[in-house]
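Annex B. Sample input.
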Amino acid sequence: MSPHFPSMAEPGGRTLGDEEVAAAERVIRSGMLSAVWGTEARALEREMAELYGRRHAIACSSGTAALHLAVVAAAPDPGDEIITTPITDFGTVAPILAQNAVPVFADVDPETGNLDPAAVARLIGPRTRAIMAVHLFGAPAPVDELRALADEHGLVLLEDCAQAWLTELPPLPPRPATPLAAVPRPAAPLAAAPPGDAGVRLAGTAGAVGCFSLQQWKHVTCGDGGLVITDDDALARTMRLFSDKGWDRAAGRSHASFGLNYRMTELQAAVARAQLAKLPGVVEARRRTAVRLLEELGGLDGVRLPRPEGHAWWLFPLVLPGGGAREMAAALAGEGIPARAGYLEQPLNRAPVWSGPVYGTSRFPLDGADAGRGPTAACPEAERLVADTLLVIDWNENYTDAHVTAVADAIRKYRPRP
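Annex B, continued. Sample output.
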């Protein structure tokens, strides 16, 4: 019989403990639960900015709110398009619609489920404003190729890192040496480098804005919460204003621009700070057991294993090129393995939401969307992954070698068809 697999819905599957209890008590005893006048949210922002080597971090109420702030920073006009992936949570797409922009779904790499840059390139048009890359399951998306596309066409690259805490990007190729006399002096101190080996680049730092989630099921949690990071002073101001009803508090009761209330509370921030301190250990533990499973399954016919480089292992994905993911997921679940097929019921380009109104009885901004590039355009690789070839296994920092062995034994037992 398989061991019990701890879930992120129970204490044994989380790292919540005395530190978080003390943090919550500290806030409650202070009497100040609002981040407007408190200190915890500002401290969380400083710690996040330092961890990622960015000039700015802004805390907000959810991962979806973080993505909304990023879309606001991209500043689409009504009817503009933002290209993203159909294999993601709807929280990636809802902010696009909320800003009256049109989501355009590009197809994905059939091995990773991440955006295919060639598919993105084919969809760039005169109304394209931004590209939203998602680092699916914690695997690094090809953001350098996407950044090159964005730069070539004058677009904004945004990164959804909700599942990708401390995901590492490939190192950039070395640049030609520059004569010392030609190197400009920085106008301000350089931001601190990310933790770990020298030169490590983290997901969320390749684009204009990186977005993170602190929802219950993520690597670290405060129940719900979000963070955005950026090096751009103007974008940071835009996002901070939008998260606080456009209120420029330095100017008194003055609203500088349109915005919503996406403020994080002090309770959320205090718990998030305690969790953030545990994040490196969480990711390291997930990586250790994931690599062990990769070793156990090496050479198994009919299974395409994920690439471990940079992976943060929110989930452990397997691709079965011959299909049959739903049958295999059911067999693994019968053995007590937390496995499921497809990740989504259907990719977002096939979701029922597109058949109904968006605002009131209106379908704006979708009414004028080009059928060949709008939200319901075909994405055959994504559709096959979700329907037949993608299998995901819940992963957790508290898994042991016994959990790895149980998963490996079950997969070998129910060897997929080649």
